[in-house]
């Protein structure tokens, strides 16, 4: 029977990062993965969606070529070839997942391709083999939640209803698509398919889409998001799915909308199959863990989507590193208030820290500074000047409480705020730091000046 220092079950961005780190520390590590290393993120989440969104962005730019002084005489001659779009996406995925396998090998991790069944906190079965370990990290991720809406089961059987996984493999673009759920994933698919010319209707039960973002960012974004192919209905409760339509209630009335395809994107549930023997404590979002990523079972840690705290790839990876630090190092805790989030539309949204609503709810004394993209040279040169940056800072030292960016490349720019916040930095440092010109990142410096007194270029 093989003996390990650590067994990791699940090879997504949580599990494979934890396994590589433990390998780097010279530990004997096994990683068990039932499908493909990279998990949801690399195989059908973060990366494939961004590869396809890039196609949508290029397509959009072709359609608006005249804005850049180019003439396309026959726009109808620009053809979307879904097979080639998917081929490009698959190539990117293959390269990355192959890369992860290479990294695992280099770190000396034994990878088992198979389903891991946990026997107890020291024993795991995989492919008729029994492995022994001192520590166990569970990183099995989550699966989409399918609500018990009448008719939805049949729609799934007929391939009319899809989750985020199946929708990436459509061979033909549907004429119309109904998205149930107005969260980040729903919005990204709405952007993708509506830009490609599919008529998309998004149905969200609460009174807002993207419930967790700053109100001011949302209201601007929703105006930008709606286009001739995208309709958003909030306070819309789906009650039934028929062979041709989705039925929903809004304002006390019943409505129906034609749906060739339906994307169900209303949350996930933890993958706990194969882990039953552990009797893990769960709550309504997932497996319960403390700030060290420990579960209620001795020497068993749970990271990533399966604990349901923040369903993001970089959170899964960080939690993996935190678990390793607590098993083999000096200990570390994760601060969820400094986790950046991104939404990949056109433009992008990125944010970290508190929203303005949260500052108010907490009774904080704060300053707010907003700088529009329209006053930034690079944004104008690139023809992408919709959006703004908003910095929230506390009033005594100008310490950054939250940063919210609606701009192209916002998801890259937010890292500056994360680092500043990690160093407990203030708007003064952000304003003092020399930013290259012309760049979009100058909006960070300008808004920081606005916290202190006034932005320069406005
Ligand atoms: C469409 C979409 C877009 C997304 N975009 C982003 C984004 O842009 N940025 C971002 O940060 N996040 C994004 N996410 C979320 C991100 O993909 C997840 O947060 C992340 O993958 C979670 O990582 P994980 O390691 O916890 O789990 P997963 O990635 O789900 O990996 C878990 C792995 O465990 C394996 N497994 C499960 N049970 C067993 C078992 N018993 N034995 C062996 N193996 C098992 C599974 O096969 C899987 O490979 C997106 C998600 C989706 C669906």
Structural write-up:
The protein has 458 residues and is of the alpha/beta class. It folds into 3 domains: 2-144 and 269-334, FAD/NAD(P)-binding domain (3-Layer(bba) Sandwich), CATH 3.50.50.60; 152-266, 3-Layer(bba) Sandwich (FAD/NAD(P)-binding domain), CATH 3.50.50.60; 338-452, FAD/NAD-linked reductase, C-terminal dimerisation domain (Enolase-like, domain 1, 2-Layer Sandwich), CATH 3.30.390.30. It has helices at 15-24, 39-43, 46-63, 82-106, 152-157, 164-167, 184-195, 215-225, 313-328, 356-361, 377-381, 410-422, 427-432, 442-452, and strands at residues 2-9, 29-33, 110-113, 117-120, 123-126, 129-138, 142-144, 161-162, 176-180, 199-203, 230-233, 237-241, 245-250, 253-258, 261-264, 268-270, 300-302, 341-343, 348-353, 366-372, 388-394, 400-407. The strands form 5 sheets. Strands 1, 2, 3, 4, 5, 6 and 17 form a 7-stranded mixed beta sheet that branches. Flavin-adenine dinucleotide binds at residues 9-15, 32-35, 39-41, 45-46, 49, 115-116, 139-141, 164, 185, 271, 274, 304-306, 311-314, 316.
């Amino acid at each position: 029977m093989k003996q390990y220092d650590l067994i990791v079950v699940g090879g997504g961005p949580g599990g494979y990062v934890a396994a590589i780190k433990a390998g780097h520390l010279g530990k004997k590590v096994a990683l068990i993965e039932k499908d493909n290393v990279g998990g949801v993120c690399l195989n059908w989440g973060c990366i494939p969606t961004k590869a396809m969104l890039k196609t949508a962005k290029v397509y959009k730019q072709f359609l608006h070529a005249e804005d850049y002084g180019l003439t396309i005489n026959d726009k109808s001659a620009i053809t979307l070839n879904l097979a080639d779009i998917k081929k490009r996406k698959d190539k990117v995925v293959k390269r990355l997942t192959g890369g992860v396998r290479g990294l695992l090998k280099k770190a000396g991790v034994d990878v088992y391709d198979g389903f891991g069944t946990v026997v107890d906190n020291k024993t795991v079965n995989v492919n008729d083999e029994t492995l022994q370990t001192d520590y166990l990290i569970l990183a099995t991720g989550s699966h989409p939640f399918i609500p018990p809406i009448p008719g939805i089961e049949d729609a799934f059987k007929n391939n009319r209803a899809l989750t985020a996984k199946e929708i990436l493999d459509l061979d033909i673009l549907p004429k119309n698509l109904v998205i149930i759920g107005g969260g980040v994933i729903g919005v990204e698919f709405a952007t993708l398919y509506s830009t490609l010319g599919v008529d998309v209707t998004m149905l969200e039960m609460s009174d807002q889409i993207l419930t967790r973002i700053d109100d001011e960012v949302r209201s601007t974004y929703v105006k930008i998001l709606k286009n001739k192919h995208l309709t958003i209905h909030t306070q819309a409760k789906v009650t039934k799915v028929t062979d041709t339509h989705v039925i929903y209630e809004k304002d006390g009335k019943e409505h129906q909308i034609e749906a060739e395809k339906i994307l169900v994107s209303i949350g996930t549930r933890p993958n706990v199959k194969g882990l039953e023997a552990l009797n893990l404590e769960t709550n309504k979002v997932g497996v319960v863990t403390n700030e060290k990523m420990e579960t209620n079972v001795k020497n068993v840690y749970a990271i990533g989507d399966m604990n349901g705290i923040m369903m993001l790839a970089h959170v899964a990876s960080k939690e993996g590193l935190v678990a390793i630090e607590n098993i083999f190092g000096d200990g570390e805790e994760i601060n969820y208030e400094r986790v950046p989030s991104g939404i990949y539309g056109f433009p992008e949204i990125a944010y970290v820290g508190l929203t303005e609503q949260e500052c108010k709810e907490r009774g904080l004394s704060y300053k707010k500074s907003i700088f529009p993209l329209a006053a930034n040279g690079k944004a104008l040169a690139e023809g992408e000047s919709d959006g703004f940056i908003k910095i929230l800072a506390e009033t005594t030292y100008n310490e950054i409480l939250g940063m919210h960016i609606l701009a192209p490349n916002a998801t890259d720019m937010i890292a500056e705020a994360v680092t500043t916040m990690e160093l407990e930095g203030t708007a003064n440092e952000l304003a003092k730091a020399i930013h290259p010109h012309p760049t979009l990142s100058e909006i960070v410096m300008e808004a920081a000046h606005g916290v202190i007194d006034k932005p320069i270029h406005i």
